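Notes to self after the call with IL:
- keep both proteins in one doc
- input above output, always
- annotate only the second one for now

Protein 1:
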Amino acid sequence: MIAAGAALAIALASLALLLHGARFGYWPRPPAVAPGAVRHRWFGRLALRAVVHFGVVAMLLLAVLGRLDAVVHFPPELLPARALAVAWIGEPGWQPLALGALGGVVIAAVLERRGRRVTLGDLRAVTPMRRAELGWGVLLAVVAGVTEELFFRLLLSLLLAIVSGSALLGFAGATATFGYAHRYQGWRGVTATVIAGVLLALVYLVSGRLWAAMLVHAAIDLNGLVLRPVLAGKLAKPSLRA
């Protein structure tokens, strides 16, 4: 319990440093970029932040606690929440759940193509605006899908479940924190992120496989960061490199 509490404090401190570190000079604020410039440094910095503060922190804390097996094997502390999810949806139900999520984002992309804005929240800071940035969009989607699931769906849910004694509280707290971590998108973005967090938690719980949640997460982000900008025809040609 004490070790889990210390690990939880470290995880939350790492998250706080990621979200608020710019105030203390830890992360420099995004520099002014000339119109038409490709934001290589900015996207590289975003990817590095996710790898360090989500992926590396999660793996290190799991290793210190001797729980690296939880990456592959569903943690017993979370079984009560899984039992409820399976009873509600059914164990084979994660595939339709995942397909439904993917179908929803594809429909949103088609609507975007037809000129209907369906994006919830301000995604300009992470969305490619030029064709030369699409590769960064793919990288960010994959990195977020892997590292954020490691951190929020596994590490935080597990630590909160151990500390509180409740698997449901573990997932609820992790999902709320997941939403708060996306506060740069505004309150609509936070709301949408919380809903996505619930969906991803259900995929993880019903399937019992963390990689399933990673796959769905990455697919959702690929839709938002790559597919929808392409279909919307809003990508500009770069004139400078930054």
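Protein 2 (the one to annotate):
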Amino acid sequence: MDQLSGGVMATDVKIVVISDLHYRKHANNEVRPAAAARGAVGYDPVAAFVDALRRDDVRADYVICPGDITDRASPEGLKLGWEKLNEIKEVVGARHLIAATGNHEVCSRDDNPSHDAAGNAEASVDPLGMLQALSDYPSSHWNGVERKWIYWGKGYEFISDGSVLFLLVNSSHFHPTMRMNEFERGRISDYALKLLSDEIDQKIEESGAKIFIALLHHPPVSHESLTHSLGRIEMFNGSRLVEVLENSGFPWLILHGHKHAGRLIMAQGAGNQPIVFAAGSIGADLVGHQVGLHTKLQGYVLSLQVSDEALPALKGSVTAYAWVDNSWVPATATNHGIPTGCGFSSPGVNVNAMAESLRDKVAEQNADFLTLSEMQGVVPELRYLMPKQVDQFRRAVVRLGGAFTWPDNQFFPDDVSFEGGK
């Protein structure tokens, strides 16, 4: 699917990202994602995604899941969901599988009234037990190592692996309290933030990494939409977490899930702000929800460049799949979610300068028009446009006298021409 983004881009690290699988046992005792509630027997978009990765011969260094592998802490769902993630790891030849802990992993929505019955000491209420019993959870990088208990105790831990430094944050750390005010929002404690702020510079220096990724389940910044409701409860201390990452002086990519609606933006900050990639869901039941009118189930492959500069930049491209008519297809339509062929860059791209460069390149070539792949060839930075920046670029080109062939339901244009061209 790389050709959809205008050709294969030279990359050093590839990551498969799938979030919110929501495996659970259904009425017929089949264990499938929540999205299968209205599907035929055997309907499983996650299993089909494994087949799509195999079909497209996708190779990756890591498989990342930002949480909600299971649904309402279903033990059967966790078992099969974790098996599917490990199957993806094998199919793409990844070195490691890394997961964030989602609210559905820790019983935050468990409504079994027997758990509240007075004197019911026999009721098994252990929201973390089934997770901690998995030797390779939340990261296969920690197999046989007690460092995973730092993650469970402190609420975060670092994973250093070659050119990549991961910060794994347990934003569901306080959910096992079973308190209602923790059900929807994530949290990182004041004390954990202090510890993180004190040690992050040392961890970066010791790692020698060139790519920096923070993984958690809940969005650390407000995740809103003008067209549909996504909830208004923000992660506690999320903005402060972003500030700690920005203050490190290195560009961070934040990966999260939870909202079931994909989004790719820059966080708040003053020039070195992190990129925030909100993964859409690959297995949630979107039927009957507003979000289902604006996005499909999605899975992603991120391609990240390793910088050889002393102060590395963050550049990456996105190959996005969408679940349409029971099949995984390139995410090219405006209602598919995050589009295939978009990207991100920190420091950010200059959209106006890119529009001027495109106008000049068209004039130099004396061409009637340039196709999308030709545009990306003469202005390579186009591959790093975030979805919102695509529209900004479109407006800038039009102001400079450009005209696109741009189907209404298509995220990227077919071609561009300029007044006074050939």
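Annotation: The longest helix spans residues 75-92. Residues 168 and 389 are 28 Å apart (CA to CA).
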